Amino acid sequence: MKAAQISKYSKTLEVEINSIDIPSITSTQVLIKTKAAGVDPHLVLAITGKVKLFDHYDFPLTLGNELAGVVIEVGAGVMDFKVGDHVYTMPPLDKMGAFAEYVAVDAAIVAKMPANLSFKEAAAVPLSALTIIQALAILDARQGAKLFISGGTGGFGQIAIPYAKSQGLFVTVSGSGSARDLANRLGADEFIDYETQDYTHILRGYDYVIDTRGASEISKQIKILKPGGKLLSLIAGPNARFANRSADLSTGKKILFNLLGLPFDGLAKWHKKSYDFIYVQPSGKQLAAFTQYLEKAKSKPVIDSEYPFDQVNAAITKIATGHSQGKVILKVDDEE
């Protein structure tokens, strides 16, 4: 089968399409024929080695964090799926593997696709859906509270905005001026054009910030929070709260993450606010709940662009620019 792989860390984002064996499954796994896969910013971090603190990959590594497809084989111990089911999933970030014609994953992290979505639309969902579900849980977000999502009109924002609104939050996002209409369609309450506006001069008294931009924006985002407000980053770096929440970390890594987070924790404490970090985990149960939300809301993700499998490098390059409005999709099977 075809698989998009890297053989080492690289700054050039060059991915090879190789021929590898179709994986065999264990009694707790299902084998999925991939129809479409989502392309996300984590791939850039993985290729360039910037997530080595979290994940030590075995090379060659098949890339890809989310997919939609059809179950073609079911392990003997799997009761919730059958051959022919349309499903979607996020493999563990330390394994990846979605950019392949066939993927073997544990059934516990798989969910049936929303009935109102195509394979391409479903492939745009898992990573962002799990991220916003887990982020709001960490923030202990409450109805009526104010949330700011930096850079909220990309692959994450197109899922996060409508879901956060469904949970009763007031949602503000930033983006380039050309993304204003998209933000409005997604239901954002307020939009900040970062090309012409400084959100630190406009926004005040926010309860929560979800950061998608990284360390350079943390000091600015802290300013817009009210006393006691919470900042949760998807990218800036781990800290003590993250380490203490991660039961499977070694003692050495917990100490390291505590030390790495000191600048962020110190800055937040100085302003009487808090900093936290998330590294999203797979969950079939949470995806199944999101399926119900999407079907009930009749909501569909926004697709920025689609690329054929042999243009995987172009798809990843598009993500690396940070200018996508919606999700970038890799078409693995043209016979959808």
Automatic annotation (TrEMBL):
InterPro entries xref list: ADH-like_N, ER, GroES-like_sf, NAD(P)-bd_dom_sf, YIM1/Zinc_Alcohol_DH_Fams
Single annotated GO MF: oxidoreductase activity
Enoyl reductase (ER) domain segment(s): 8-330
Domain of life: Bacteria
Pfam families xref list: ADH_N, ADH_zinc_N_2
PANTHER family according to UniProt: ALCOHOL DEHYDROGENASE RELATED, RETICULON-4-INTERACTING PROTEIN 1, MITOCHONDRIAL
Name this polypeptide is given: Enoyl reductase (ER) domain-containing protein
